[in-house]
Amino acid sequence: MGIEFTKYHGLGNDFILIDNRHESEPILTRSQAAELCDRHFGIGADGIIFALPGQNNTDYTMRIYNSDGSEAEMCGNGIRCLAKFIADLEGVNAKTQYRIHTLSGVMTPKLLSDSQVKVDMGEPRLLAAEIPTTLGFPDQKVVELPLEVSGQFWSVTCVSMGNPHCITFVDDVSAIALETIGPLFEHHGVFPQRTNTEFIEIIQRNYVKMRVWERGAGVTLACGTGACAAVVAGVLAGKCDRQAKVELPGGILAIEWSEIDRRLYMTGPAVRVFTGTI
Ligand code: ZDP
User: Fold this and answer.
1) DSSP alpha helices (H): ranges in the chain?
2) What is the pLDDT of residues 176-188, one digit of tens each?
3) What is the pTM of this model?
4) 107 lines ligand 1 (CB under 6 A)
5) How far, in Å, CA of 43 to CA of 276, rounded?
6) Active-site residue, 240 included
7) Segment 60-104, tens digit of pLDDT
8) What's the rounded Cα separation, in Å, for the pair 2 and 168?
9) For residue 116, how far is the Cα from the chain centroid?
10) Beta bridge partners of 125
11) Could you tell me the distance, in angstroms and rounded to a whole number, from the CA of residue 69 to the centre of ligand 1?
12) How far apart (Å, rounded) are the C-alpha atoms in residues 98 and 10?
């Protein structure tokens, strides 16, 4: 029996979406997920996302496996794709806003009339123990602390958007050897759950350039939680406004860290590419 899937991407951060509405656990194993994400021997994707029944008063539950088969708590570009996927599945009954249960709490994507999706990503977690990292003190923020990677000291700021992020401000993002340095950050001893790693170049207080090395997925064209974490880090370090655009290799995300409710709002595209049967 075949399993239907649909391929979506958010700024080139691409996912296989699975209709998992009739089971409360993902219908694929982690190793099957890793095989399907392989770009030469499988469908090809940065991750695989399951739309499961809702829990605790939500419409749906999202689960995501990275391309290496590890599970992530949250996924910003992925949740925009999930919102479109669900609306497509529901057809005439589709809503314009959904409450989605994730491993890092409830997220609320809203389908806008211009086909963009705006997501209430919740509040960032900032204390070292919450990220988690052993840098600094467990009950304090980690803002521009020195971290030695590959014989060099980097000034890093850490933020959790449900998943861990380590942000470094640099003069020129294009000069960073991501494939070499990325894995050394991801697996550094100070990050017990490993980490996503973002390099940020400040162009203006409300416009930054970012390149990302994702935990469990490597170099990707975009990362929604990473873009949110980058703006939070920029604000904490006094370099960014609370409202800023983040330019990624795959395109631009609009991020706002609300002063009123302290939640992150991310707006960007989600595009269906093709469907198929495994
Ligand atoms: O935390 C992790 O392990 C990430 N690799 C998950 C995926 C994050 C994502 N790129 C995003 O957009 O937030 C999908």
Assistant:
1) 30-37, 76-90, 178-186, 224-236
2) 999 999 999 999 9
3) 0.96
4) no
5) 9
6) no
7) 999 999 999 999 999 999 999 999 999 999 999 999 999 999 999
8) 44
9) 17
10) 160
11) 12
12) 18
